[in-house]
Amino acid sequence: MELKEKLLASFMAFENQVDMDSPVHDIRSEAIRNFEEKGFPHRKMEAWKYTSLAPLQKVDFSLFPKEDSTLDYREVKQYFLHEIDTYKIVFIDGIYSSYLSETTHDGVDICLMSSALTKPMYRPIIDVYFNKIASREESLTTLNTAFTREGAYIYIPKNKAPRKPVEILHLSTGNEASLMLQPRNLIIAEENAELQVIERHQSLTTNEVLTNSVTEIFAGKDAIIDYYKVQTDHSTASLIDNTYIDQKTNSQVSVHTFSFGGKLTRNNLNFFQDGNHMNSILKGVTILGDKQHVDHHTLVHHQQPNCESHQDYKGIFGDQSTGVFNGKIIVDKIAQKTNAFQQNNNLLISDRASVNTKPQLEIFADDVKCSHGCTIGQLDQEALFYLRSRGIGKKEASALLMYAFANNVLESVRIPELKGRINRLIAEKLGVHLGFDL
Prior knowledge:
This protein is an alpha/beta fold. It has helices spanning 3-17, 25-38, 54-57, 73-76, 113-118, 123-129, 139-146, 381-389, 394-410, 416-430; strands at residues 87-92, 95-96, 109-112, 152-156, 166-172, 178-181, 184-189, 194-203, 208-219, 224-231, 237-247, 252-259, 264-273, 279-288, 293-302, 308-317, 322-331, 339-348, 354-363, 369-377. The chain has two domains: 3-274, no CATH class; 379-438, no CATH class.
């Protein structure tokens, strides 16, 4: 049975497991009908021209874990940012782990999507925010909506900020031969609120995993949100990540995406600016080897005047890896005085690696400052020769140049301990130990 047919056949059983009287029942039903009509995206579609999901659709994924799994903290400590204290929302094979988590309701809500969807006290927030900016046209988003049950729910009221960052960690144990997960996150920072979130998906074995994730983020007036995605999974793990962000006046939202692992990763990052004097920051570092594939699709829609957006993605591709970058900026006619910047730079360190990059601008206003560009090249041989002439080995010299290439993306990481962790991950990915952080 193909994956689409299996999902459609399993939907009725899923609905019987959740509250049929839930306010999202009708939303789920509409979503599964949309998915049934559209099916999985394919390479004949322009947005999926360079990324094929066909091999994944042939895998017999388990859609619901057959049993609860438990893990000891020592087994997974390395995947937490244990250098600092954080709130933690941890899922094992899609099921919440209270033992590994630390949630709170002390002035803010950092808890579970399942609670928010079923408890009356959260109903006013769910009615206002849930599924309001997630696409009803993107079939994998509608698939996630149809099977929405669990994920992270974060609500930061006006003028509040959590005492510490929030980690969202999805762990796969490998107890199933192959497993499909569909987490759903809802994150709200109201007026003048602040929030830092670190999200990670991690397989603990080499059993195949497909994660189809959707996150909706709402930033109120004067809110500040920093969101960090750490993607460094096994070569049998695939991730499709859809993130939708709505910003209000004077807000600032930054999303840093670090893609170092996985079999196939597709990041759809969508910003919608609905106010004046706001800033959207999208940055990413991708380092791939083997036959890994990462596809970044970004959208920043400037709908109001006097706003900024900054996109800076760096990619380093070795072996037979493939990178895709498609960045779109839309500036509406009303969005005068927009300042939008987009840059995608790539290094090919193997003759068999490839990159497909496509920056796009759609500008309907006439008083704007917009720029975009992309480069694909190799290491500067003169710079490499200079470093080697100073007694630095070839491998270390190459790694140093690649570090420098990615450094300006790391400069804007505002959690020092996370910045140090990412530096170590980069060094590990490059196979060197430089002995210092940039």
